[in-house]
Design brief:
By secondary structure, this protein is an alpha/beta fold. The protein contains ten helices and 14 strands. Helix 8 crosses helix 10. The longest helix is centred in the C-terminal third of the chain and has 18 residues. It is globular. The relative contact order is 0.16.
Length: 334
């Protein structure tokens, strides 16, 4: 693919707004179409960002021949439907996280993309962040020795009322899929898929998790991760990785970091930052999608599909432990 990369944005909520704002200053890219479930919402979004075409249906966007890649920004309960619609129409897709509601849905999307030879990536912007990439390089090069523990948390105080999407089970509500996906993805970026999963949670009357604590284990590596997510508590939102020779600490906002500190015995603490190349926020993942498309790649090495599938399997295991079920699981929750 050469020339300007033409984006379609599917959905018009807050995350889609942030995406469109960041994309406006990206070189050689543009949003050429937007879709919502209503004409009014699509038109309002298009007018705000100067987008030439607005559609009141997802299918119309998927059928637009002038769209190269679609950013799926719906609640995760609709990710499978929306992304599959676009893939079946021959569109490349960047799909928000959590990738889907469960691993089965994620596997269906991955198989569809691979069968069609189309690009598909989970919008895990953390993995594309240059500071996170620098951290993984240091860990891979042995800066802290063998990893023994990972700690990470992401909690918001709310309050979120029963009517809020985060507490709506029909929309895949709960702390785990919206916030917990970040600590889990952080741990699995470093250690891969765990072979032991323990979890405890406080559930809402609607049957979604208000707070979840997770303990993941990797037997072969001799490592463990203590992770938390919450809709009822403003947690530190920090992360730390401890190895046999040192540790790395991230301040608040570990999932979009600007710096981290490396601690090693016998050395002064070292602060690391990374050049942004003038990019900010979602532009790192946008740039990775554009790079991959121009290189003719159907998967990103920074956010590999097998990694997204592994994270979804872990989230499924956590939900199994805490008793959170969605209609897409095919299991009725009492």
């Amino acid at each position: 693919m050469s020339g300007t990369v033409r984006w379609g944005v599917l959905a018009t909520g807050g995350i889609a707004t942030t995406f469109a704002e960041d994309l406006r200053s990206m070189p050689d890219t543009e949003v050429v179409a937007v879709a919502s479930r209503t004409d009014a919402s699509a038109r309002a979004f298009a007018e705000r960002f100067g987008i030439p075409r607005a559609y009141g249906s997802w299918a119309a966007l998927a059928a637009d021949d002038e769209v190269d890649v679609v950013y799926v920004a719906t609640p995760h309960s609709a990710h499978r439907e929306a992304a599959a619609l676009c893939l079946e129409a021959g569109k490349h897709v960047l799909c928000e996280k959590a990738f889907t509601l469960n691993a089965r849905e994620a596997d269906e999307l991955v198989k569809l993309a691979r069968d069609r030879g189309l690009f598909l990536m989970e919008a895990m912007w953390t993995y594309c962040n240059p500071v996170i990439r620098r951290m993984t390089e240091l860990v891979r090069d042995g800066a802290i020795g063998e990893i023994r523990t990972v700690q990470a948390d992401f909690g918001l105080a709310g309050p979120f009322g029963p009517e809020h999407r985060l507490r709506d089970r029909a929309l895949g509500g709960g702390a785990l899929l919206d916030l917990g996906v970040y600590p889990v993805s952080f741990a699995q970026l470093l250690l891969g898929e765990p072979d032991r999963v323990q979890a405890d949670a406080v559930l809402s009357p609607e049957g979604v998790d208000l707070h979840t604590a997770m303990l993941l284990g990797w037997s072969e590596a001799g490592a463990s991760a203590l992770l938390n997510c919450s809709l009822v508590a403003d947690t530190p939102q920090t992360a730390a990785v401890t190895g046999t020779k040192g540790r790395i600490e991230f301040p608040r906002g570990f999932f979009y970091p600007e710096r981290f500190v490396l601690h090693r015995a016998g050395h002064e603490p070292e602060e690391f930052t990374a050049g942004t190349g003038g990019l900010r926020g979602m532009q790192f993942e946008q740039a990775e999608v554009v790079r991959a498309l121009r290189a003719g790649e159907t998967e990103s090495p920074l956010v590999p599909l097998d990694g997204s599938l592994a994270v979804m399997r872990t989230l499924d295991a956590v939900r199994d432990r805490i008793g959170v079920r969605y209609a897409a699981d095919g299991i009725t929750q009492g």
